[in-house]
């Protein structure tokens, strides 16, 4: 093995371990979030019971089954990431988004598939991260998932999603004691929406370290807004959105590895 | 429960997959023959029903106008020239259709909304609507009183039809009987909704004080045309034998978010000029009774809360009865108490209800029948507010598997039962009844007045 290959391998290896760990944690925490959501609000119960005339017992049986299977899968892949289980998690997460569209009943529910893209992208990004030869695929799956999530949230913000207005007004009041009026919240949302869309596009065409730092920060703040708005009881809503800030972290790790790799080989290339 | 889940999970997932591929409406296919007469004729009340109303209807053809309402305080049996008043429809347009609407066979529809004002209080108005030269039957409605006589409203919500499921013949053949027998049961569609509409009509005919039907929202699964069309078709049954219509007071729920909702329920502007497409407003039911409609599907902490606080400050001292209704519950009887939406509604609205001592709150969305204990500061308090609900106009009712929640303990309760409420605003008390699907009285209670209103105020004279 040449020096060059050896250093490259070691860089990829170090990076992959960090990325794999972050993604394993992401998928597991996300599964806990889905479990909590399924056990309290439910994904399937109304869809089956109200829309499709299943008995309530049948509908809740499916809901419970789904919740426990997702939780078990999340824990299993944290202990040992098996590709087949990760595919299953991704499919079940996607299915929950699809059911949200079918069931409706909350603002912009028909946008659930792009809005939750980071959720079902995270396990897929992990599958590719497990194979050193497919790191680039892992990077692109994470990028696409994150891009869709940020872009969709950006458009929702531009259209003044009512819950976003309430996050701003109540969180502002809880954290600073400031009374923010609706029109001010809407102006703020317009700016936020625009920034989200710019970030979503930037990571596709012009990935830049500071953008990833911003997305980690902003993904965390927006996920945590559920708690700053309504209190710690909303932790499930926060957990389910962990990928909003861990996927930019994954991209940052990949990006830094890439930069390090380039700077090491820059003198050799000259 | 978990054992059962395990036994059936495979078959359920199989069935879900099939349903995802083959859902289709089992409601009867609409005759494709073009209908020309105005249909779905309805009276909508907003803020000042003693002198103002909106008349809305649907046509199933694209013929041009004109679209008119002819009205008078005496019947002319459709003789257009005899009616004293005539108003052109203010808002007309094509109802938005999506691919599923066409697949389900609902015909293209057109909405028409006309606003009539300067009406006399507590007076019968006879009217016909005319579209493209075709006139409807003559109907009448009675405006709200502006004095202190007792009035009643019918209040109910969640009229979504039940399961819409029809397997394609191929799947039906493939599906083993044992799975069908285990997982499927009789599909009732919108029979329960139709039955509840009969109950409403009966109450309306029996109780002469009933002046309006207030809907706490979730009219259908969506506000797309295939769902609203059938809701409006079923709604047409709520008419007294002498063609008296029961005016509707409209609110918006979490399944009513599509554009079709605003197209079919146009409320115009408020007295102070605010657009009512926000679906929050106060209806003066009489000199001493106000009904506040709130909207849980828009921001609840922004302008709406500012408006609510201002409105309650203004009317609480003047009205003996202030009742509030909206869709998503602050005190859900079966849904997750700590759910995000319910917590948000509770935090935003309840402190104002308690500050201004509203007399009763009606909530929807949960698909059970409930009455809470009087609640103040998050606990049982005799001086608190009673919340009723929670959606029983035909949507399948959830079983109450956990009846230990503190706020539905006796005399409160939560049960699984289709229902509608009658709220009677009397001088001495607020009398509330819950009526079941067979017309039986399920609940009956009274609330004493809180406001010290000594003399009846002068009649509200907002002229539009
Ligand atoms: Fe609802
Ligand atoms: Fe509902």
TrEMBL record, chain A:
Taxonomic superkingdom: Bacteria
Annotated TM spans: 27-54, 66-99, 111-130, 137-155, 187-206, 211-232, 238-255
Record lineage: Bacteria, Pseudomonadati, Bacteroidota, Cytophagia, Cytophagales
Keywords, sorted A to Z: Membrane, Transmembrane, Transmembrane helix
Keyword Hydrolase: no
The keyword Metal-binding is annotated on this UniProt entry: no
Sections of the chain in a coiled coil: none
Protein name per Swiss-Prot or TrEMBL: DoxX-like protein
UniProtKB/TrEMBL annotation, chain B:
Segments forming a coiled coil: none
Keywords: Signal
Ranges of residues in domain Calcineurin-like phosphoesterase: 193-363
Residue ranges occupied by any Purple acid phosphatase N-terminal domain in the UniProt entry: 38-143
Record bears the keyword Signal: yes
InterPro entries: Calcineurin-like_PHP, Metallo-depent_PP-like, PAPs-like, PAPs_N, Purple_acid_Pase-like_N
Protein name from the UniProt record: Fibronectin type III domain-containing protein
Organism: Pontibacter ruber
